[in-house]
Each structure stands twice: as structure tokens, then as C-alpha cells.
Amino acid sequence: MQIQALLQELYERYQGLAEGNVARYIPELARFDPKLFAIGIMTTSGDFYGIGDVEQHFTLQSMSKPFTYGLVLEERGRDEVLRYVGVEPTGQSFNSIILDEKSGRAYNPMVNSGAIAVASLIRGADAAERSKRMLHMFSQYAGRALTFDLPTFLSERENGHRNRAIAHLMKNFNMLEGDLNEALELYFQQCSVLVNIKDIATMAATLAHRGINPITQQQALQPKYVRDILSVMLTCGMYDMSGWWAYRIGIPSKSGVSGGIWGVVPNRMGIAVFSPPLNEHGHSVRGIQVFTDLADQLRLHVFEVLDNL
User: Fold this and answer.
1) Torsion sign, CA atoms 16, 24, 58, 201
2) Do residues 104 and 168 touch, judged by C-beta distance below 8 A?
3) pLDDT, tens digit, for every residue of 269-305?
4) At what angle do helices 127-142 and 180-191 cross, to 10 degrees?
5) Catalytic choice (11, 49, 64, 65)
6) pTM for the structure as a whole
7) Interior CA angle at 234 toward 157 and 130, to 5°?
């Protein structure tokens, strides 16, 4: 009840915040009402607390990247994945056309280049099987059957020229496996997976719970790879705000241009916020405020424990 009261307080505090702009470079995202706002927390014991537009569906967009990264880590192992995708921050925006000058690989799996390379590594006999495996993986994290949003997928595919340029550059350096167009299709599909605030809070809580879904108790990811995902999320998950985020909030997190931010507090909870207006870095304005207050009031910073030494 204390958590629910805190969420109510934060919702009322930031509901009237009118800063930021809804993403418009993908037509389907431009349709969102900027007043939409939801906050959710799922604990590792399976208790959910939510406030606001909790039934509203939105697409994962870049919030999908840590999960597909985990999938290929399981399928390929750390060493093989590192051949294609590094783990270093770029200090640049999510869609920068930049690769490591020495290796030709993407800097990390949280930026678009790294996520497209990761999509190319998903195993399967054909495109349909790979897509099915990917969607099944997302569903295991959420604890229910998820679906793709076809209008968003088509909008992404129609307007994804910059991502195509990134993919062609990586293909030039042999940093994409298999067919380039198939990798892009998989990437556009993962971005178009539909969720609500409870889904994404549950997905975050699954990582907080050593890869075990707190509701279904199914193992969505091998525990040894949870560390890999959270490490990269903390250092790279918020793009060119990652340093500030790690310093000020200290919660491994990932954002998406649909307006969502989710974060993982190991062994405790998954946190999710949805609010479409974004700042200049592509992160939800209300989401940043909510995460900042939650980190302070619940003492969630990853290094908060140092105060007790």
C-alpha cells in the first residue's frame, strides 16, 4: 500500500507536466495523445502496483533491445556475440551512423546499429521461425502471449531509411550475419511488439528475479546472462544520457521513443513508466522525473548500499 500511495503521489505530481514532444518521424507514434501517462511496479514476489493509463497499449521500440540481446547471448554465447557487437558507450544518439573504427562492429547492443546486428544473429531455419522464436521470448518475459502491431511495423519499414543505411554499412564490414533485409525485418518487428505498463514492468521484474518470471515462475533467461544485460543497460541503455542516468538515478534502464522507460532493481522489482512526450535525447520527460523521485525516495541507486558501510 505504501508503494501504491507513492505512485499516486508521483502521478499527481507529474500528470500536468507539459514539456517534451511526441515522436513524429514514425507516423504511428505521432498519433499518441501526449496526456497518456502510466506508472507500474512489479516486485520479484509477483505483486503489481499501477496508476494511470495502465490498460493503454504501446510498442516496445528500443525497449526491446535488452531482451533480444539476451536471446542471442543464450543462443550464441558471449564470445561469438562480441565479435559483432561491443559493450562500449557511444556518447551519441541512438540512431548515429557510427561503428568502431578498428573492428567495424557496433559499439553496443542498445543503439540501433548494435540491435540490428543482434537481430541478424537470432537462430532459425528461416525468417518465419526466427520471428516466432523472438515473439515467444518476449511473451515468456511478459507472462502472456504478445503480438506485433502491424501498422507500426509497416510504418517502421516504410520510414526506416536511416536504419537501412546503418545496416548496409555494417554489412560492408561483415558485421551482419545472413540476409540484410531479413535482419532489418526482424528489427522492425521487435520494435513493434505491443505491451502495456504491467507487461513491461513484469519483463523488467523477470530480469530482477534472475531471469525467472515472477508470475509464471518460468525461466525466460539463464541467470548468467542477466548480469551482461544489466551491465550494458546501466552504461549504454539511455544513450547520450547514460552517464547522467547512472550518476543520478543508478538503475539499469532502457527507453523507447514510444514514450516508455523500464528499469531493473535486482532482487527487488521492475519499474516501468509510459508517457509519450520526449526530451531532446529521445526519453520520456515524465518518465525521467518519476525514475528520479523513485530512486531518491526508495533508495534504489545501485551504489546506495555504500551509505551503509
Assistant:
1) negative
2) no
3) 999 999 999 999 999 999 999 999 999 999 999 998 6
4) 20
5) 65
6) 0.95
7) 35
CA–CA gap between residue 247 and residue 17 (Å, rounded) = 24
Helix (H, G, I), strand (E, B), or coil: what is residue 211?
A: coil
Instruction: Select from 161, 191, 221 the last residue of a domain.
Output: 191
Annotated catalytic residue 171? no
Q: Same structural domain for residues 184 and 231? A: no
- Looking at the structure of the chain, the number of domains it has is 2
The count of other CB atoms within 10 Å of the CB of residue 88 is 12
CATH number at residue 74: 3.40.710.10
- The DSSP H or E segment spanning 171 is helix 161-172
Measured between alpha carbons, how far is 125 from 148 in angstroms, rounded to an integer? 21
Helix H or strand E segment including 18? none
Q: 187 catalytic, yes or no?
A: yes
Catalytic annotation, pick one of 11, 69, 187, 225: 187
56, with CB counted inside 10 A (0-12, 13-18, 19+), is middle
Same domain assignment for residues 202 and 277: yes
Based on the fold, state whether residues 154 and 49 are members of the same structural domain: no
| pLDDT tens, residue by residue, 199-242 | 999 999 999 999 999 999 999 999 999 999 999 999 999 999 99
Q: Assess whether 102 carries a catalytic annotation.
A: no
45 is catalytic: no
Active-site residue, selected from the candidate residues 81, 111, 257, 285: 257
Active-site residue identified among 239, 255, 264, 275: 239
* Among candidate residues 141, 170, 191, the one where a domain is terminated: 191
Structure letter (DSSP) for residue 31: G
Query: Domain residues for 229?
Result: 2-60+195-308
Detail the DSSP E strand segments found in the chain: 38-43, 48-52, 58-59, 194-195, 253-255, 260-265, 269-274
Active site residue 35: no
